[in-house]
Structure to design on (288 residues):
């Protein structure tokens, strides 16, 4: 009995040992853990890798934006704004250049006249020289004052009682001449003021219209990509730029010319005061 139990236990143990050996043979081998296996570098690929994007992956081709293309593709209303601002800018520059040359010419002629006036010539000689060539305001002021002074001596030396009236007429003649001449110099400056004040708002109108076109394109195509909204936004920004390009030079040169004309007017008034004093002194000397 005991011998049978021992034989059965030995048989079970042999069966268990045989199963463990079979499982060890069928299990996968573990990764090598030797130092050589851990330090071995990975081999680089031996074939070339194509990194060129395919047609499906590449982005859309975007054409360059130029001033001409913006104008040709713009809405008719925006085109009208562009044309109006361009004409205003060209006309402003024509006025700017014309006034620059005119004021420089007036200053040179005034310098020449004052040099001749203080050279020691008599009033009659100066009158004969400039009476037919009043091509600048200072000569016109001189001629108007001396013409009124000569009228006072048409019937002989004036009486002392008439001197205040004669002096007053001479001063008024010079004042009216200064006003008339300065009004001619200031002509067309109002256009520069108008362009400087209104051109930014005209450009803003084009800006608003271009943005409205962008929103209309979004609503029509149900798409908010940059390719849809970019043309309208470009038109809007270009209209704003055109308004500023027309307004900025107009404002700058308007302020400059107003100051230059103001200084020239002050110069005319100073000359008229000096000349009035000279004529008044001679009237007092020649009065009965």
């Amino acid at each position: 009995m005991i011998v049978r139990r021992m034989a059965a236990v030995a048989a079970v143990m042999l069966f268990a040992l045989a199963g463990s050996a079979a499982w060890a043979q069928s299990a996968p081998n573990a990764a090598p853990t030797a130092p050589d296996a851990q330090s071995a570098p990975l081999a680089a690929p031996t074939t070339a890798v194509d990194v060129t994007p395919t047609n499906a992956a590449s982005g859309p081709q975007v054409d360059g934006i130029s001033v001409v293309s913006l104008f040709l593709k713009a809405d008719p209303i925006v085109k009208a704004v562009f044309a109006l601002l361009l004409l205003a800018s060209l006309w402003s520059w024509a006025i700017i250049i014309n006034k620059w040359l005119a004021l420089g010419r007036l200053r040179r002629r005034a310098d020449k006249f004052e040099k001749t006036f203080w050279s020691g010539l008599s009033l009659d000689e100066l009158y004969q020289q400039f009476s037919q060539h009043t091509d600048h305001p200072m000569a016109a002021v001189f001629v108007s004052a001396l013409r009124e002074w000569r009228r006072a001596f048409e019937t002989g030396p004036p009486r002392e009682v008439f001197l205040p009236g004669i002096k007053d007429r001479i001063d008024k003649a010079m004042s009216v001449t200064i006003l008339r001449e300065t009004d001619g110099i200031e002509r067309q400056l109002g256009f520069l003021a108008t362009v400087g004040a209104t051109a930014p708002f005209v450009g803003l109108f084009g800006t608003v219209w271009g943005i409205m076109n962008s929103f209309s394109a979004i609503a029509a195509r149900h798409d908010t990509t940059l390719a849809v909204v970019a043309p309208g936004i470009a038109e809007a920004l270009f209209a704003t730029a055109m308004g500023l390009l027309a307004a900025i030079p107009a404002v700058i040169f308007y302020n400059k010319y107003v100051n230059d004309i103001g200084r020239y007017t002050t110069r005319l008034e100073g000359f008229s005061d000096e000349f009035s004093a000279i004529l008044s002194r001679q009237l007092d000397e020649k009065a009965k």
